[in-house]
Automatic annotation (TrEMBL):
This is Dihydrolipoyl dehydrogenase. Belongs to the class-I pyridine nucleotide-disulfide oxidoreductase family. Keywords: Cytoplasm, Disulfide bond, FAD, Flavoprotein, NAD, Nucleotide-binding, Oxidoreductase, Redox-active center. Disulfide bonds join 49-54. GO terms for molecular function: dihydrolipoyl dehydrogenase (NADH) activity; flavin adenine dinucleotide binding. Binds 1 FAD per subunit.
Amino acid sequence: MSETYDVIVIGGGPAGYPAAIRAAQLGFKTVCIDAWLNMDNTPAFGGTCLNAGCIPSKALLESSELVHRAQHEFDKHGISTGPVSFDLAKMQARKTKVSRDLTGGIKALFQANKVTGLFGYGRLLGDGKVEYKDHDGKTSELVGKHIVIATGSAPVNLKIAPFDGDKIIDSWGALDMTEVPKRLGVIGAGVIGTELGSVWNRLGAKTVVIEAMPTFLPMVDQAIAKETLKHLTKQGLDIRLGAKVLGAKTGADGVTVEYEQNGETKSEVFDKLIVAVGRRPYTDGVGAKELGVAIDERGFVKVDAHYKTNVPGIYAVGDVIGNPMLAHKAIEEGVALAEQLAGHHTQLNYNAIPSVIYTSPEVAWVGLSEEQAKAAGYEVKTGTASFVPSGRAKAMEMNVGLCKVIADVKTDRILGVHMVGPHTSEMIAESVLALEYSATCEDIALTMHSHPSLSETFHDAVLLVDGRAVHAVNKPARKA
């Protein structure tokens, strides 16, 4: 006999588990099915983000930054430690514990909100039916009024450099290395590539990042991208732009990578090669295509403004419906869908989604870059403030980086904020609010910021847009 639910969610990552929890809070009988298995074959909710992406990478970034600071900065604070070493196995164990604590928290939230959580696979059968198969292969049938596809994404596997799980690895494998490679290659200088490259570079790996694009971080305002590249290069990351990988071949000595740069064919040998060229929507085995759910040429599930697919009763949220592939975007889509199913009028502002790269210094942005604003036809004015004179940043020995504000000349509205500097992952929240409420530069200029604080640099950037800064050298307002 089939078990009947109001909402069936297939996928328990950042899109799926919040959708399930919010649906249950709104009175729907809800089940969430998730197939994730960790490398030790233990099931867990949370998807890639909590188990093999956002959370474990941030744990290792934090640990490796502490190693770097102990080795290079503590002496400036008058702290003597003697030679600094680290225990990678202990570092990895801590990373795993951080992830497991959080995934266990999802189980507790399911129980508290009366969500039925099932480990295994869900496959669409049509007519509101879903086949559930547990990890032992036992199958049963579920019936639901609303079925949500929230199966996330998976790393892109390059044909010219296919994953082998040993020498050529994906982002998950890069987080689980048991020793620091002497020579590390990274294909892709995007968010994942720069973060992973930073981790192992800090821990002692000679790291080369190979990027096909001629510009670094093209999605970021180029003034900020250039500043970021300067600092990462100074730290020892060897970032090679305009370098197109031709192939990778494993051998006894490691991985030989051939690439073309400036019309010349070159090669490098690495102990390990991380392929981080992006992610693809994951719908394998869900049965969406077989059921006639519309999927575009890149593999993303097509949905309307209310996350409905073309098949009645079937919805999709998160990475599986398209960029940006960000956990916080997925969370909000899952919640919004649940609320819409309950008749609420929920809408997301896709123009105010923050993005962060957790290197040191951190890179964070929201809204349009200067280049994007001009391409969209805006007449813009900008203000750029440095973290170098910030009293708070100086006290932290982190006074590097820039904050740039892009605004509309005609309306004074802030169009985007891009920054690189200390703790910008936290600072960007004020800018998100500014865009959400259509703030003008004058609105922020009249807002008091605590002193000393990093947020003063954002305030200075806004003041510089109109040449009003007190703690920075004003230049004639630049319009373009």
